[in-house]
C-alpha cells in the first residue's frame, strides 16, 4: 500500500520586544536566573497582567504579512496545566478568538508554487525554564529560572496542507524570512527564538480521512525539521504495515540519532480547561490601527526580490539569493548606497563574500570586509587600477588582515600594468621562446591564443591589463 504523509506546523516566534507581554520586566537573554522577574511573571496571587501594546502591534504585522484577517475583537484565555516552570498553573494564551486567522503563504520549489493555509496566529506568554545542573550555592539538582516566563510569543499554526519534509522546510524558511524582515523576531533558532512543532500523520493514498498525528516538539533547525519529519513518516508507515496503530502523542526529536521518541500521550484541547482570562479585557483593535500598522510594514522579501529585478536589472536568481536573508540584502544595499554598480556588487556579494563567510562559518553581520571597503575595491577595478583577478587577491588580504584596498594595492605593488610598451616587451619575449606555438597559431590553430594569454599574465604576475594583453597579442600573432 502507498501512503500519503500529511503535515501541519505550529511555529513559536519569540517577539523582539524590550519588555515582557504582561509586565515591565526585561526580556534580555542570558541574565542571572530570576533577576528579571516581578509578581506578575512570578505568578504571585493577586498580581494583575497588563498587555504590552508592542506585542499586539507585532502580531498585527505578522498577520498582515501572512495574508491573515485581523480580528477586531480577540480574547485571552487560560490554558491550564501543571509544570514546575509555570507557577500560576496556567499559561495565558488565546484560544477561541485569536488575533489573526485565515492566512496563507505561497511556497515555491520542485513542486511549483503551492499555497499553505495559516489557520491562526495567536499571542501567548512563554513559561520559565528548568535548569538541571549544579546550582551555585545549592549543589546539584534542579532549579527554576523564571526570566523567560511571560516572554511574548506568537504561535503560528498552519493548516495540514503540507505533504513532504521539503515543503515543510520551504514553509518554515519563508515564515522565518518574513518575521525577520518584519523586525519582530531575531530569528535565532539556536537560542529558541523561532521553533517548530511538527504534526505528522500518514494515510493510505486516496483515503478520505487523515491518519492519527503525532506532534514532535521544539525542533530548532531547518535540518532537524527535515530529519524529524522524514523519520516520523517512515516510522508511522512501518507501524501501520506491521499491523499496529499510531497513537496520538507528543514526541521529542533527538538530533544525535536523528530519531524521534515518545515523550508523553498527547492532551486534547478539553484537557486544558481553556476559559477566558478574567484578568484581561477582550482586545479590541480598530481599523485605523490596522491601517497604521499596514503603512509601517517594511519592504517584504517578495517585494524586494521584484524590485531588485525591475529597478536594478538583476536576474531572478541573483534577486532571490540576495534577498534570502535580510542582513545579506542590507549588506548589498549598503554597497549600492556607497556607489557600487548593481550587477558587479551582486556578483561579489554572492561570490567572494558568501564563499568567505561559508568557509569561515560566519554570519554576514560578522563579515570582516565592510560594504564600503568592498565598494572601494570594486572602484579600483572600475578605474583600471587593478584587474578583477588581482582584486580577488586584495579581497583575501582585506579579509585576513583588514585594511583599505588602495593601500594594500600600493604596498604590495599590485597596480595593473596598462602600459603598452611594458606589455609588448613581455609578449615579444614569450613569442620568441615559443615559436612552435606561434607557427601553429598562424597555421590556423586559434586555440593557442589562450596559451599565450596565460603565459603573458603569468609573466606579469597577473598584473597586466587583460584587455591590453588581448589586443596586443592579437595584432602581434597575426604578424
Ligand atoms: P494542538 O495544540 O493540539 O497541537 P493545534 O490546533 O494548535 O492543536 O495544532 C494542530 C496542528 O496539527 C495544526 O498545524 C494542524 O494543521 C495539524 N494537524 C491537524 N491534524 C493533522 C493530521 N491528521 N495530520 C497532520 N497534521 C495535522
Ligand atoms: Mg500543538
Ligand atoms: Zn515581570
From TrEMBL:
Q: What would be one Pfam family of this protein?
A: GatB_N
| Highest rank taxon of the organism | Bacteria
Specify the enzyme's EC class, one word.
Answer: ligase
In this chain the Asn/Gln amidotransferase domain maps to 330-477
Keywords of the record, alphabetical order, are:
ATP-binding, Ligase, Nucleotide-binding, Protein biosynthesis, Transferase
Catalytic activity annotated for this protein? Answer: L-glutamyl-tRNA(Gln) + L-glutamine + ATP + H2O = L-glutaminyl-tRNA(Gln) + L-glutamate + ADP + phosphate + H(+); L-aspartyl-tRNA(Asn) + L-glutamine + ATP + H2O = L-asparaginyl-tRNA(Asn) + L-glutamate + ADP + phosphate + 2 H(+)
**What's a BP term from Gene Ontology annotated to this protein?**
translation
Q: Which GO terms describe its molecular function?
A: asparaginyl-tRNA synthase (glutamine-hydrolyzing) activity; ATP binding; glutaminyl-tRNA synthase (glutamine-hydrolyzing) activity; transferase activity
Q: Which residues cross the membrane?
A: none
**What residue ranges carry the coiled-coil annotation?**
none
Q: Which Gene3D superfamilies match?
A: 1.10.10.410, GatB domain, N-terminal subdomain (1.10.150.380)
What InterPro entries does the database record attribute to this sequence? Answer: Asn/Gln-tRNA_amidoTrfase_suB/E, Asn/Gln-tRNA_Trfase_suB/E_cat, Asn/Gln_amidotransferase, Asn/Gln_tRNA_amidoTrase-B-like, GatB, GatB_C_1, GatB_Yqey_C_2, Gln-tRNA_amidoTrfase_suB_CS
EC code: 6.3.5.-
SUPFAM superfamilies given in the database record: GatB/YqeY motif, Glutamine synthetase/guanido kinase
Write out the similarity annotation. Belongs to the GatB/GatE family. GatB subfamily.
Q: How does it assemble?
A: Heterotrimer of A, B and C subunits.
Described purpose of this protein according to its UniProt entry: Allows the formation of correctly charged Asn-tRNA(Asn) or Gln-tRNA(Gln) through the transamidation of misacylated Asp-tRNA(Asn) or Glu-tRNA(Gln) in organisms which lack either or both of asparaginyl-tRNA or glutaminyl-tRNA synthetases. The reaction takes place in the presence of glutamine and ATP through an activated phospho-Asp-tRNA(Asn) or phospho-Glu-tRNA(Gln).
- What NCBIfam families has UniProt attached to this entry? gatB, PRK05477.1-2, PRK05477.1-4, PRK05477.1-5
The protein here is known as: Aspartyl/glutamyl-tRNA(Asn/Gln) amidotransferase subunit B
Q: Supply the source organism for this entry.
A: Geobacter argillaceus
